[in-house]
Amino acid sequence: MRPWLMLAALLPLAACQSEPQLATLTDASPETIEVLSSVLATATGRARIQLGPHDVTRDPVVSVLPPPPGPMEGNSTAMPALFDIVLMDGDCYVRAQSDGALHALTGLTCEPVPDPA
Question: Is 91 exposed, middle or buried (0-12, 13-18, 19+ CB in 10 A)?
Fold first, then answer.
């Protein structure tokens, strides 16, 4: 197959993949927060998580607080896990700031964050 023909065949596929765009969720109902928490629990590999104090309808960053120190621990140096809410190809995801891994927020809707102009 000729290279230009191969490129022309692959071009529509490349057009479908857009860059993730920072977004916010469209609502913060208990059901939405439950879905978000479930996805973030899976992403962090923990059974239970506590979200940081963010308004997901205004802030595109969500934090997962570290587990509390155990009874034999003094002060903990653990830091929150930070995730960006992003919109890509019409679907919502959370993207881990630590490694860029994307996790789908199936069933949730989000809207892009307006450009600060």
Answer: middle
Full residue range of the structural domain in which residue 101 is found: 19-67+79-112
- Which two structure tokens, joined as six digits, stand for 37? 């928490």
- Alpha-carbon distance 24 to 8, whole Å? 35
Q: How many CB atoms lie within 10 A of CB 95?
A: 20
Higher pLDDT, 70 or 95: 95
Give the pTM.
0.80
**Could you tell me the sign of the dihedral formed by the alpha carbons of 62, 109, 20, 47, in that order?**
positive
Overall domain count for the chain: 1
**15 SS3 class:** helix
The first and second tokens of residue 113, run together, are: 């964050």
